[in-house]
Design brief:
The chain is mainly beta. The protein has one domain (9-170). It has two helices and 14 strands, in the order αββββββββββββββα. It has helices spanning 9-15, 167-170; strands spanning 21-23, 26-28, 32-35, 40-46, 55-60, 66-68, 74-75, 77-81, 89-95, 100-111, 114-118, 123-132, 135-143, 152-159. A hairpin with a 2-residue loop joins strand 10 (100-111) and strand 11. The radius of gyration is 16 Å and the shape is globular.
Length: 171
């Protein structure tokens, strides 16, 4: 399905039932799914110059999957943001437990002076480029204004479960 510029991108995704939409010569995705059959380490690497803006990388599982944090806890949704106090990459052990890993972007939208973190609104979408069987590059639009793949760029790699991921082991 191709994108009608008279609609916003999310309307096109609704019409396509969530399938990728052709924008110009690029297929734009609402989100990307990784099928993982066993525990792994997910590496998120922000690309390009530091932006310090309110755009995030999100990875998530629906119900049974777990994303481990360095303090020993786990979550189902994790956001990674480009801020000066943090490295531009992170690793997290994941246990899919039969779930697909969802990769997408989120962003801050201000309405009436209040900030809201959103995904999948307006002209948000991502171009997904497979780099290798275990790495994909994402160029994303944050949904604010016209569609643009310049809002946030990142790569996600799936590494073997035994890959060091704790900060004490890699920094």
């Amino acid at each position: 399905m191709s994108f009608d510029a008279a609609l916003n991108l999310q309307s096109a995704f609704v019409s396509s039932l969530g399938q990728p939409v052709l924008v110009g010569d690029q297929w734009v995705h609402l989100a990307d799914r990784w099928v993982l059959n066993e525990p792994a380490v997910v590496e998120i690497r922000l690309l390009g110059e530091r932006s310090y803006n309110a755009d995030y990388v999100r990875i998530s599982f629906r119900k049974k999957g777990k994303i481990h944090l360095s303090d020993g806890s786990f979550v189902r949704v994790l956001e990674h943001r480009d801020i000066s106090e943090k490295p531009r990459w992170a690793r997290h052990k994941v246990e899919p437990n039969g779930e697909q890993l969802l990769v997408y972007n989120s962003y801050v939208v201000t309405r009436n002076g209040q900030d809201f973190v959103e995904s999948w609104t307006g002209n948000a979408g991502m171009v997904v480029d497979p780099i290798s069987p275990t790495t994909r590059r994402y160029s994303c639009s944050n949904g604010i204004g016209p569609f643009s793949t310049y809002d946030i760029h990142f790569e996600v790699s799936i590494l073997p479960a035994e890959t060091p991921w704790q900060p004490k082991d890699i920094y």
